[in-house]
Amino acid sequence: xxxxxxxxxxxxxxxxxxxxxxxxxxxxxxxxxxxxxxxxxxxxxxxxxxxxxxxxxxxxxxxxxxxxxxxxxxxxxxxxxxxxxxxxxxxxxxxxxxxxxxxxxxxxxxxxxxxxxxxxxxxxxxxxxxxxxxxxxxxxxxxxxxxxxxxxxxxxxxxxxxxxxxxxxxxxxxxxxxxxxxxxxxxxxxxxxxxxxxxxxxxxxxxxxxxxxxxxxxxxxxxxxxxxxxxxxxxxxxxxxxxxxxxxxxxxxxxxxxxxxxxxxxxxxxxxxxxxxxxx
Length: 280
Fold this sequence. Notes:
By secondary structure, the protein is mostly helical. Helix content is 77%, strand content 0%. It is globular, with a radius of gyration of 20 Å. The two termini are 35 Å apart.
């Protein structure tokens, strides 16, 4: 790969990330002004946040498609893939969700700062707004951009592993929330690897939606788990809960690594044709 192509890929990745941040700020400013005028916390309403996301990501996806000049199915592959990925991906994201929650507890012990109450406030304002914003809009828009267009742009300049890393880092930073950055980065790494493994965004959209649904469901659990859905006075989660998270994550990853990737399946399909042509 020549230097000019690498520079183009790097600049494209940087420009798309900056443009996304600027668009989100641009749409958030009038909402904040209107919030001040009507004395209603619009910026904490997850349905309104979802609308800002939809507009921001929609515009940036359109601009990226004009710049890259490749079909949408190449930039944002939504290929049907085997259902065999669903169960291990579910195990992984449940385990990762538990471990990220404990990581958040540890970070708060090392760097004491107020816990983020954005989710709770959003649910109190509108449960349906939170459900649609977190479980429908966010996974769809964010996966199409971060694991789709941004990753395809980064791939021009970087290899597979660096692309997954960079897309995950930008994904975490764009959350603009110190509480969410470490967890979002780790989840982003898994979603990036899953999208690459399946050559489709459908599994990562499903898994992202499930991760957000788990955050929502934790608020409504009929029982308390110290450090998980009850953080006041409990610095850490129970050991059994963390071990369960680790077991689920390890089991899911083991299962996924034993499942053939989309690239390996494609090679298996092509190989008989190659051998047949050589025989002829």
